[in-house]
Amino acid sequence: MTSSPLNARPGAVPLSRLLHPTNPRVLVAAHRGAWHRAPENSLSAIDDAIGLGADIVECDVRATRDGVLVLMHDDTADRMTTARGPIATMDWCELSARRLRAGAGGAGAAVTAERPATLADALVRARDRVILNIDTKVEALAGQVAEAVIDAGMADQVFVKAFIDTEEDIERARSSPFFGRVPFVPMLRPSSGRLTAELQRLAPLRCPMVEVAFATLEELEAARPELVRLQARLWINTIQVSHSLDLNDERALADPDAVWGRLLSAGAGAIQTDAVAALAAYLAARDPRLTMA
């Protein structure tokens, strides 16, 4: 059973306040929404994530053949819908007539009554309720996504992320017409021993948060002074499909101190998880300030 928007908490904290260095809150990011209870990347998954205590809902965006931005992770509709084939070859009227599969989808997943959602639908559903992290699965869509966010008047309720591997990536981000207008969160995958140096390179981006894949916890702790200097929050993944070391949701559900507790001690300021309710409860029990903006 999904949560009703009317029963969700009354309003989201603006992104600028939520990410501010003086805010002690450790942010809970719901990966593709609360997909254990609803189809991933669906409006009901956004609703449920809010009801379970998420501060941020991550969603994936692709475009149909006629240019409609839709919430979908894969390049095909096969896993999550009753349609088959690449999303880029379908018009929106064709995709929107299909139904979403439950949970993470797949051939054996039940077909629900819910239909695929557009980015515009998601912005309306999230407005003043939760922060959206939009993952543009195709780089060429970034400008279109940013324009949609600005047109919706939600630039302080949305951020976009992209990998930063080279100086060219940094320059591309800085030269975007949307730089400084829609918050940008870089994703880093530094080689061992290079995290502090990689963070130093990010200074021109003035980013409020950085997602890091790391080799050791000691490396994270050594980089904390640079994060403080940048006034950037540290985002860590514990989702099963993307995590560092053995610090994942499966282990966290068995021993939260060994995973989420260790990450808090290393300076994590946001954790992306598929176990939204468990992480929110853990943070509240550990220190109520971690769940208050």
How would you describe what is shown here?
By secondary structure, the chain is of the alpha/beta class. It has a single domain, classed as TIM Barrel, CATH 3.20.20.190. It has twelve helices and ten strands. The chain has an eight-stranded parallel barrel, surrounded by six helices. A hairpin with a 5-residue loop joins β2 and β3. The longest helix is centred in the last third of the chain and has 11 residues, at 276-286.
Strand content: 15-25%
Instruction: Give the C-level CATH assignment.
Output: Alpha Beta
The poorly predicted ranges are 1-10
Supply the number of structural domains.
1
What oligomeric state best describes the polypeptide chains here?
A: single chain
Give the C-alpha Rg: 18 Å
Can you name the CATH architecture?
Alpha-Beta Barrel
Total helices: the number is: 12
Q: Describe the strand arrangement of the main beta sheet, using strand numbers.
A: 1-2-4-5-6-7-8-10
The biggest sheet amounts to: 8 strands, parallel, barrel
Shape: globular
Strand runs, count: 10
Fourth CATH level, the homologous superfamily? Phosphatidylinositol (PI) phosphodiesterase
Helix-strand pattern, N to C? Answer: HEHEEHHEHEHEHEHHEEHHEH
* CATH topology (fold) name: TIM Barrel
